[in-house]
Amino acid sequence: MPSASLKRLRQISHLLDNAIAIPGSDFRIGLDPILGILPGGGDIVTGLMSVYIVFEAAKMGLPAATLGRMGFNILLDTLTGTIPIIGDFFDVTWKANSQNVALLEKHLADPTPSRAADRLFAIVIVVGLLALILGAATLSVWVLTRLFMLAGSS
Fold first, then answer.
1. For 29, phi and psi rounded to 5 degrees?
2. Which of 6, 9, 90, 123 could bond to 2 as cystine, CB 3.0-4.6 Å?
3. pLDDT digits (tens, 9 = 90+) for 93-151
4. How many C-beta atoms lie closer than 10 Å to residue 134's C-beta?
C-alpha cells in the first residue's frame, strides 16, 4: 500500500504529464506543456510542482545519485522549455515528473540507505532547482518585455 506522500506525488505527476488523453490515440499530455505556453508564469507553476516532487523524494531518503538524476530531468525540462515552441513539444514527450516518480518508486522498492552527505546534496539540488526555475521564468518575461518594446517602437 503506497504512502499518502507517494500517492500525492503520483497524482501531481499524472496531472503534469498525463492528465489529458489525445482522442484517437494512446498518447496523453499533461498541464506542463500547456501551462508552459504562458511565458514565465506557467514555467514557475509547473517548475515548483516538479521541485516539490524532488523535495518530497529527498525527505523519503533517496540517495544523492537518484536525486541528481531527478534534478537533471527537471533541469533538461526547464532549459529546453525556455525555447519557444520547440520546448513545448519537448515537454509533451519528455515527462520529467513521471520519470522522477518512477525513480522514487524504484528506490522505495529496493531502498539504499541515505547518508548525511545525501541530505546536504538534497538541499543543494532543491535550492539550485528553485533558482533555475525562477531565473528561467524571469528571463522569459524579460525577453518578452524587450520584444514588445521593440515591436512598439517600430
1. -130, 165
2. 6
3. 889 999 999 999 999 998 877 676 788 888 899 999 999 888 888 887 788 788 888 88
4. 15
Residue 152: Cβ within 10 Å count: 7
What separation in angstroms does the CA of 151 have from each of 32, 40, 52, 95, 102?
Answer: 29, 19, 38, 35, 45
Entry pTM: 0.83
C-alpha cell at position 41: 508564469
DSSP-derived secondary structure letter, 115: -
> Nearest 10 degrees: CA dihedral of 106, 65, 80, 7?
30
Task: Determine the Cα–Cα distance for residues 70 and 88; give it in Å rounded to an integer.
Answer: 20
Measured CA distances, 57 to 17, 70, 82, 119 (Å): 18, 9, 25, 11
How many C-beta atoms surround the C-beta of residue 91 within 10 A? 27
